[in-house]
Amino acid sequence: MNASPFTNPSTGAHVRSVRSDLPGDLMEVSMGPHHPSTHGVFRMIVTLDGETIVRLKPVFGYLHRNHEKLAENTSYLGSMPYTDRLDYLNSMTNNWAYARAVEQLAGIAVPERAEYVRVILAELTRLLNHTCLAGFLMQDCGCSGTPLMYAFREREKILDLFESLSGSRMMCNYQRFGGCRVDPSADWLARARQLVEEYGPFLDEFEALLTGNEILLARTQGVGRLSAALAINAGVTGPMLRATGVNHDLRKVDGYGVYPRFQFRIPLGEHGDVYDRYMIRILEMRESLAILRQAFAGLPAGPIMNPAAKLRGFRPKVGEAYGRIEGPKGEIGFHLVSDGGPNPWRYHVRAPSFINLTILEDLCLGHTVADAVIILGSIDIVLGEVDR
Amino acid sequence: MLGTGILQGLIVTAKNFVGSFHDPARYTTLEYPEVKPALPEAYRNFPFLVCDNATDPMGTLRCVACQICEKECPPQCIYIEKSRDKKPDATGKLQIYPAVFAIDTSVCMSCQICVEVCPFDAIKMDQVFEIATTDRYAALLLDRGQLTKPNAYFHTIHPTEAAEVDARLTADRQAAEEKARAAALAKAKTPAASPAPAAPVAKRDQTLESAP
After folding, report:
1. Domains of chain B, with CATH numbers?
2. Nearest to A275 by CA among A148, A351, A374
3. pLDDT, mean over chain A
4. Are A153 and B28 inside 8 Å of each other by CB?
5. ipTM for the complex?
6. Res. A7: pLDDT tops 80
């Protein structure tokens, strides 16, 4: 393998050209926006030397629907259902992040029971998201169908829980400023508890299916290696960052909600490759199950909603707030600036999918197109959140 | 040994394959058009208007055309025109009613905010989901007549919520009657006093509405 003019000094990835003194014609391929591997309408303009990627230009915005400007023109409450549609796998955590921002802005206290319910729902969402991600990643690897269907089978059970609590499977619109909309019944909690008990065996089965699989190891180990320095510089958060070995989880760092009361560990990766990112998610799901068990055990009785919180005619005082939580994909935050009116003067979403996607080119350089597909899959994006 | 991981995975798929024929817990498919899904009580899709009496739906509409839902609806799918005259509502009090009440279901995103902000329990979420139509425009714009459904129907789809609403409305009505009676009594005692004030419009969601 000769030295290549296309070596990227920052990542160390190199192009495997046969003869560097005779570079062939580069070919530009437009992957997407309709390509099924792009998890939505995302386009990568890939420049290829043979089958090796030498340049990659991500193009997004096909799903842009003016989320931030819409929010600046509707009431604070009116933006809540729109946050469901950001990252449509994780509407519960999006709701929570937005509710936290508004609660900080207006100084609304949240009852303890609501905080516990929020933790339960956020961890169920994490299970849902990571299960789906593992399934999709296998689909991207070419393992067509089986793991994805197993993942969707389990996801359906969580969606059924969300539906019977909030009325909708995906667009939950459940959190409110100062609490949650409805109180989960004892029957619902019993069903959720049963799901958590059944989830461990499912993860064992899923891991038996995948984790030791030689084809998976060959496809994912050493692919799309992300260095901790680049991850920090690019502002990467969530499982992507932790797969590089950086111990940063807002549940521990900020200790928001009632998370400090729970005993759980933060799984860390070592290599920052696709396999580590996959494993981090599996391990995080196991920690989520531990959190869920503690949350069910400690769930106090009491009101679910702060009675002082207003639903209609809500006008927070002049100020600004940034509310963030550790979403399944990374730090999801909402920056709100209020001028005292009924709608925010400025509304900004810090979308983890979008910021994690910015390093896509650095991860893909020197790899093949087939690898780019699984690298994109391991970043875990939802285009609803990237494009907003 | 190379290949054991793959073999282990094949054992898992084999178990699932065989299990899917024997274990009812693994039957994940619902034969939909023949077998209807059991909807959870909280399930919602599009709003409908509640009337108290099925024989006279327009006369007993709970909606008083206050237009709060129209203002709060995030995608702005509700259109209301107030009536110029007044009609007696379920309690006999004269109220404005919606002369036009239309919901564009092609715009509605089923977020339930209209239900939450309604102070009169007049708009609730329906559970009818088989609403596919070949007409893109007119058939999706539901008018007052198509939207109105009786309270008994509300009881069949959301029994818990409907019972709560009924209890609250009865309590409010009794409180209003009580107040009217007290006012009438006071008037009878002091004939020279000013006429009894009309029963105030019952404000139901005090917790949500009042600013302490």
Report:
1. 47-161 (3.30.70.3270), 166-210 (no CATH)
2. A374
3. 86
4. yes
5. 0.76
6. no
